[in-house]
Amino acid sequence: MMDERSYLQPESGRKLGLGGIKFSDAQSRLVFRPVGGLAALSRILAAFAGKRINLHQLVFRKIPVGGVELYLARNAYLQNRSLIDGELDSHGLAPAEVAEPVGTLTLFPHASSMEVLLKVIGIAVGSGLPVHSMCSSLSALCIATDAERLDELAGALLEVFSLPDGHSPFRYEQSDLDRRLTGGQGRIVETIARYWEPVIRIYGSSLKTGLTGVSVSADGDRLLEVIGELADCRIARFLMVELTGTESGRYSLQLIFDPEHQHGAAAALSFGLERIDNIEYYVWKGLELLFFHGPHFQDRYGVMHTAVAALSEASVEISSAICSGTGVHLVAKEEAGRHMLDVLGEVFVVP
Amino acid sequence: MSDQQLILVVDDDTDLVEALAMKLESENFAVAKAYDGVEGFDKIKERRPALVILDVMMPRKDGYQLCDELKNDAGYKDIPIILLTAVAEAVNSTNYTHMGGKTTLADDYVPKPIDLDKLMEIVRDNL
Fold it and tell me: For chain A, does the N or the C end have fewer beta carbons within 10 angstroms?
């Protein structure tokens, strides 16, 4: 059942083209709330890094309520649950919610297109399927839902998006090399727990300043109105997005874009959001976004812990963070970006 | 632009494909993208690239297999292939060794994490 708002429909009957869709294996979703700052986040991440457990996705935010949401392989969580719980308990921490099995649907490439993003949010939220979260990486949008609902979610998206002929299958299929190296059992992961670097190698980083961000808390129907207002603002590109659904049926959305080529967009957006009842929203200006990425971050435990621990020790405050795909996005207020870059330059290196 | 050389990037790491594409496009190359070896071969049949940047570990069809198929095909054997490998001197692995113990006919290799400037040098050297 797809929402019939016009901005969700394929224009002139033409579907938007994507490169592909992938489903993850079964995952566990852990939510920690409230989490006040980086010191608490660092302790949470230490529990997983210390056990050499890879995190596939992580979101940290301070508004509207400080919280951390992370995803890991279900088998890894279930096999290590008592150890993880024990480690967290020693710091007075415990997840507020645990959901499993969940799965993430990754669609790519988004090309930073606001049109693609708004359609994906609208379809996912309007589908009636559980949407635990959605966040962006450099190339992809990752949507978490219940593991057994992934095909339904893909079906809803493919009413508006198309895939090329011969596209990769949604679920992992072994290659000959996989079969040879694993004896036909499972899949070889190139770098899982194989990097033993004193300083983590990355591909590169970028710092953008003077950005505009909008944070919204709303129920599903109101969120779809928010999406409509965003569509009306005609913002062409987004830089980062994260969306979290709660058990109460409310969603928390954070979206960052560069206002440089979108004069008046922030004001127009504020004006539009003001007209929607029963939402909380903030429009931020002067935000700074640091992005860095590296090989197989999802397979390499400890990346976020390394970044967060360094920032916490240096008393750098960030507003939010996403680790998704092979990249990390860190959001800070005005003039904090350079400090973030300097601190992280001590623990990450571009070879 | 008709005078742009086409580079095909094949990797199941979609973020890396995007990063490589941005770098190549900034260097005035046209870029085609594929996310496993089967898609890669389809793209090559669709439009012949000047060069292929090819990951090794991919689902469905890995980079070794695609490389073998192209280098043993009279119609495609002259397309330069640069293999991307996650195995480098700082990585210790007992499951995955460089080239998996087999030889390939690839024209060059680049270890991950990729030095983009070094990659561009290799691309230009092989065109």
Answer: N
- Number of structural domains, chain A? 2
Q: Which of A137, A194, A350 sits opposite B91 (nearest CB)?
A: A194
Give the CA count within 13 Å in the CB-facing half-sphere of A31: 18
* Angle between helix A303-313 and A337-344 (nearest 10): 120
Taking contacts as CB-CB distances below 8 angstroms, the residues of chain B near A194 are 91-93, 96
- CB atoms B14 and A351 under 8 Å: no
Report H helices in chain A: 38-49, 74-89, 114-126, 150-157, 176-182, 220-233, 265-274, 303-313, 337-344
Q: Do A157 and A77 fall within a single domain?
A: yes
Beta bridge pairs of residue A107: A21, A141
Round to whole Å and give the CA distance between A201 and B41.
31
What is the pLDDT confidence band of residue A202, given thresholds at 50, 70 and 90?
confident
The class that CATH gives domain B6-126 is alpha beta
Looking at the fold, whether A160 and A248 belong to one and the same domain comes out as: no
How high is the mean pLDDT of chain A? Answer: 88
Closest to A150 (Cα-Cα) out of A167, A166, A127: A127
Query: Which of A74-88, A98-112, B106-120 comes out lowest in average pLDDT?
Result: B106-120
- Predicted confidence at residue B87, as pLDDT, reads 52
pLDDT tens by residue, A111-123: 999 999 999 999 9
Q: Let me know if residue A236 belongs to a domain.
A: yes
ipTM attached to this prediction: 0.87
Residue of B24, B57, B58, B119 to mutate when probing chain A, most A C-beta within 10 A:
B57
Measuring CA to CA, which residue among A30, A107, A137 is closest to residue A73? Answer: A30
Domain assignment present for residue A12? The answer is: no
Q: Which of A167, A190, A196, A237 to mutate to test the interface with B (most CBs of B within 10 A)?
A: A190
Residue spans per domain, chain B = 6-126
Contact B26, B123 (CB under 8 A): no
The string of DSSP letters for A210-238 reads EEEEEEEEEEHHHHHHHHHHHHHHT--B-
